[in-house]
Write a structure and sequence with these properties.
single chain
């Protein structure tokens, strides 16, 4: 298949390209810059110039492909709500371009949208419309397209990592370096799910090749790593003390990240593994954090 890939030069998208090419697919990658175009060509992908706010460019790219994988997202969390709405509009545009066809559209969301309640693992077959995370706009856009007959599939992400980036933990490292203390909230028992970026890239390919319309897939290799263990690992890596903060103290300490740090976001991928035969093999989150070069971040 010829796959239109948004976010093609990003952390996850750049890992998806060799995964797709290795399986015999072609990749048409979205980029807005000359440097991005050069990177795509070097990776063996074709180039489509455009950006998330240029909805016509998204429609044009989708119309030229047999399938769409949408991983692009503006990660400026100081404008998180606006960026979630931007993603809603991008998904709607991509879906409009393939409406009336059998082309699959794979969109991206977060595992928290499958929240099953306190102490329970988030599940693929649950959609929590009351979840406070505004990223639900992505799944709302996907659901509207599904109702219109578009083949929409959702990949829900945990903390996606290697030894350079680790999802929300990357800005957590920056805060820890600035504050000179590695902090967690309360007893630090709240958990974050995780998966290595190469395992995640393989799941996107499997969702493309074997996924079903309307399905949601959790890209979860580790169901939940305790926040305290993450803080202790960062403290050791940065050579700073580790401390527990109250919820009130956390808001001032973590800034915008304070809305996430105390959440228990553990999630299951049992159904994903069963349905797609996905078996994560990459290193775990703590292993990658232990091997990270903290002098270079």
């Amino acid at each position: 298949m010829r796959v239109f890939l948004t976010g093609a030069t990003g952390f996850i998208g750049s890992a998806i390209i060799p995964e797709l090419l290795g399986a015999g697919h072609q990749v048409l990658g979205l980029t807005r810059s000359g440097a991005g175009a050069q990177a795509l060509e070097a990776a063996g992908a074709q180039v489509h110039r455009g950006e998330l706010l240029d909805l016509d460019s998204l429609r044009e790219g989708a119309s030229q492909a047999d399938a769409v994988i949408h991983t692009a997202f503006d990660h400026d969390f100081s404008h998180f709500l606006a960026n979630c709405e931007k993603d809603r509009n991008a998904i709607a545009a991509l879906g409009d371009a393939i409406r009336g066809t059998s082309k699959p559209l794979i969109i991206t969301s977060g595992t928290g949208l499958g929240d099953a309640g306190p102490g329970r693992l988030a599940q693929e077959d649950i959609y929590n419309a009351d979840h406070p995370n505004p990223r639900k706009a992505s799944e709302e856009a996907g659901a509207a397209l599904s109702e219109a007959g578009v083949d929409v599939r959702v990949v829900r992400l945990p903390q996606v990592h290697d030894t350079v980036k680790q999802g929300l933990i990357t800005p957590l490292v920056a805060i820890t370096r600035e504050r000179r203390v590695s902090a967690y909230v309360g007893d630090g028992a709240n958990r974050w799910p995780a998966a290595h970026v190469l395992d995640v890239a393989r799941l996107y390919r499997l969702a493309l090749e074997q996924g079903q319309p309307g399905a949601r897939y959790n890209a979860v290799a580790e169901e939940g790593i305790a926040a305290k263990q993450i803080a202790e690992t960062l403290g050791a890596g940065l050579g700073v003390p580790v401390a527990s903060l109250s919820a009130q103290e956390a808001a001032a300490h973590f800034g915008w990240l304070g809305m996430f740090v105390g959440l228990d976001m553990a999630a299951s991928s049992a159904k994903t593994r069963e349905q797609l035969g996905w078996t994560p093999t990459g290193p775990g989150l703590i292993a990658d954090l232990e091997r990270m070069d903290y002098s270079a971040t």
